[in-house]
TrEMBL record, chains A, B:
Residues 28-194 form the MOSC domain. One of its GO terms (molecular function) is catalytic activity. It comes from the Bacteria. It comes from Labrys okinawensis. PANTHER family: METAL-SULFUR CLUSTER BIOSYNTHESIS PROTEINS YUAD-RELATED, MOSC DOMAIN-CONTAINING PROTEIN. InterPro entries: MoCF_Sase_C (IPR005302), MOSC_domain (IPR052716), Pyrv_Knase-like_insert_dom_sf (IPR011037). This is MOSC domain-containing protein. PROSITE patterns: MOSC. Pfam families: MOSC. Signal peptide: none annotated.
């Protein structure tokens, strides 16, 4: 019989921590209450996100994405920032049969390149930027009709694109993140990633 | 060649959302600055955790658990609450060759039973309590020497237990969580769990 102290944990395969790097293509912030964002040279972040942005704050009102909460009830804000990858946007564009999808159309705050399967980065992944800013990935972003309508608008109203967007962008829409350490992020700079241990709970 | 729009996402297996239920065995809060906690009838929670507790707050100072941050730098607080399972504590006790490990010795705020592999619940798991309180699991808790010393103290100073604790409790030490919706949690009540979609990022 094996010594129980040599095998204390359940028999669940744990994928070790991984470290990677990527490149910031652009940063952007909301323009008043528009869905889309506007490109900036630099994004300056506090612990609550982008100061003055409608997604800033430690808390946010519950919405249709979290139907188990009463609508508008204050909950922890996992959505201070939206981050997409240029590679995923190219796949969305291909799925829609259009030339390109710009990160600003989707309201992204940061667009990156060089990280494979970016939209699948697990919760708890940390992104480290040269200024000392650190972001924590809180989950996959969901495509929505509003973003689809914005894509359609930028393409001069091609009929039906808004409806097709959700399917075309599923699991390609990037991640949402919060600010673990304040700082600034600039287009053109590199960043490091720390992907935490991963496993599948079978329950 | 397959229609790309029918398979827009990378080929990563996604484990669907799961729903489970469990039972609260006891709740406890810190007693002044002691490591251990003291049992209560009810835990009353705000969005910042347990009011007045040293682990309360939207932010916390970085410590040895997150060595990539400057020590004491304020970071997002993922550790408002510590939750353990009676099943995992029984395995720790077995690994140490002692009769029992009480949740209070480890500074746990909530002890549960009925959830298999509790310490492996993935980040983003939500726990729903009858009052309307909802907790969000933020990660596996790490065993530490301090908790081990507390176990040793409760057992009258059996030599070496503190040192053996970290190995004996690895991946059995429960999870840390934050308060997504305020409310109260009571010993003896049931709760529901929502385990989010899971996958392994291979990068």
């Amino acid at each position: 019989m094996p010594d129980p102290s040599s095998n204390p944990a359940p028999d669940i395969a744990v994928t070790p921590v991984m470290k990677r790097s990527g490149h910031v293509v652009m940063v952007a912030a909301a323009v008043e209450n528009a869905v889309g964002t506007g490109r900036l040279a630099e994004l300056v972040l506090t612990h609550e996100g982008i100061p003055g942005d409608r997604h800033a704050g430690f808390l946010r009102p519950a919405d249709v994405r979290v139907p188990w909460f009463e609508r508008h009830a204050p909950i922890q804000n996992e959505r201070q920032l939206s981050i997409v990858s240029m590679e995923d946007l190219a796949v969305i564009a291909g799925n829609l049969g259009i030339e390109r999808v710009e990160p600003e159309w989707l309201g992204a705050n940061i667009a990156v390149e060089g990280v494979p399967d970016f939209s699948f980065l697990p919760r708890g992944t940390r992104l480290f930027f040269p200024s000392g800013a650190v972001l924590a990935v809180m989950g996959q972003n969901d495509p929505c009709r509003i973003a689809g309508a914005e894509v359609e608008r930028h393409l001069g109203g091609q009929g039906g694109l808004a409806l097709r967007f959700a399917a075309a962008a599923k699991r390609l829409r990037g991640v949402v993140a919060i600010v673990d350490r304040p700082g600034s992020i600039r287009g053109g700079e590199g960043f490091k990633l720390r992907i935490p241990e991963q496993w599948i709970w079978q329950g």
